[in-house]
Amino acid sequence: MAEQLSLSEVNLTCPICCDIFTTPVALKCSHSFCQECLQTYWKDLKVLLCPVCRKECLTDEPTPSLAFKSLCESFKRVNQASGQNQDFGICSLHGEKCKLFCHEEKQLICVVCQVSKQHEHHKCSPVQEAAEDLKVNLKTGIETLEENLLVLTNAKKQNEEDSNVVKNHIEAMEQEVRNEFRRFHQFLHDKEAKWITSLRQQQEQKCCVVDKTIAKLEQQITSLSETIKKMKQESEEEDATFLKNYNNNYERIQTSAVDTVAPVQKLSCEDITLPGSLFAVWAEMQDLIQEPPVTLDPLTASKRLFVSQDCTTVQYTTQKLLVPDNPERFYVGVMGSQGFNSGVHCWDVGVGDSEKWTIGVVEDTVDRKKLLVMEPQARFWSIRLSDGVYRLGVRAQTEIIVKEDPWIIRVWLDYDQGRIRFCDPHRNNTLCTYSCKFKEKIFPYFCSGSTDFPLTLFPGKMK
């Protein structure tokens, strides 16, 4: 009878909870499960699948079986009556009480099983002795998980501290930016917004990864804490119950230990920068109070350059402008409205984040309807930025090594001495210098290749 019940138990066990069916239901693929277990398994699935064969199922597919339920309940009653449910004490093969534990098979056996061929060379111990030894092993496993939990907790703490440092640093820099921009009032409102946006983007870039890491750590901590709690509960169970579940529990500990990872995203504030120089902004603010010594001549602007109403800003457009093709108009670029045939003159050009521009001076009688040859022999003296490289004109292959991109290009012209100098006024660096002898009137020249960042003119300082 005991053997028959044991064989029946295999067929009456739910594949999900590994226990005798409670309210069994069957799918069309013939696999049966506890109704509650199946619904829990399906809870987070978008497509309902059989837990065993993975065939797709319908929500109304599970079919309750009253006869099957009755059979399971009868089986449970028989087990309770024989005391098997309490201590698993009767060997299903020999009908003897299970007083030994086989360490090789990880199962309870009787004294007859011990001398059988199946367990002939296996290490076996009395139930109480085996439980005591294996509880020590489980305790060691739990201690390892607790150490891993501590590592995860410390990693989360470190990530949070680094995240707070970065956020506080960003907040301090943000406050500094706000204090500086209050002096510029409404005129610098757009610049202020741009700076704040840049800092927030840096914060988002830096903290996005660590925030995801922290969330992952929290999930691991929760999962590991639940595993440890479960393991501690299992270790307090009765010996027979403990030994029956020992193999699964120990495998769960080993799996959890392997899966435990403590990612740490080390953050640093060293590469957090402002999107520009306060010095350059102050210089622009001071210069805007004055009338620029150089303005743009809209009649000379090519059809892809838009000149502002005050003639101090030029910006590239992807669509050609509907403007007359008058003789003064350049094929590429725009000329300043003021020309010089003597004296010393200086003007600044704000390039900002523009990645493509040309700034220089050109003689009045160049052929404006052709693509200019940007070199001194063609009466064109210029500096150019394109594809991240600073060059002396277009045709020339001479590159200029610039360590930090300037926000302002200062053009310094000494007509009488025949000298043109391009420099970065913020860092007081000379980018390049031309020496020549002018033969006719010289005009400032500008060309922008950026739709996002216009070139802006304002007064330069004679130094």
Polypeptide structure, described:
By secondary structure, the protein is α+β, with helices and mostly antiparallel strands. Helix content is 38%, strand content 18%. The chain is built from 9 helices and 19 strands. It has helices at 2-11, 35-42, 66-82, 84-87, 111-114, 127-181, 189-235, 239-259, 278-289, and strands at residues 24-26, 32-34, 63-64, 100-102, 107-109, 124-126, 305-307, 313-316, 334-335, 344-350, 357-363, 380-386, 389-391, 399-400, 408-414, 419-424, 429-435, 442-448, 455-459. The strands form 4 sheets. Strands 7-8-19-10-15-16-17 form a 7-stranded antiparallel beta sheet, with helices on one face. Strands 9-18-11-12-13-14 form a 6-stranded antiparallel beta sheet, with no helix packed on it. Helix 6 packs antiparallel against helix 7, helix 6 (127-181) packs parallel to helix 8 and helix 7 (189-235) runs antiparallel to helix 8 (239-259). The longest helix has 55 residues, at 127-181. The model is unreliable at 1-7 (pLDDT under 50).
Quick structural overview:
The chain has 463 residues and is α+β, with helices and mostly antiparallel strands. The chain has helices spanning 2-11, 35-42, 66-82, 84-87, 111-114, 127-181, 189-235, 239-259, 278-289; strands spanning 24-26, 32-34, 63-64, 100-102, 107-109, 124-126, 305-307, 313-316, 334-335, 344-350, 357-363, 380-386, 389-391, 399-400, 408-414, 419-424, 429-435, 442-448, 455-459.
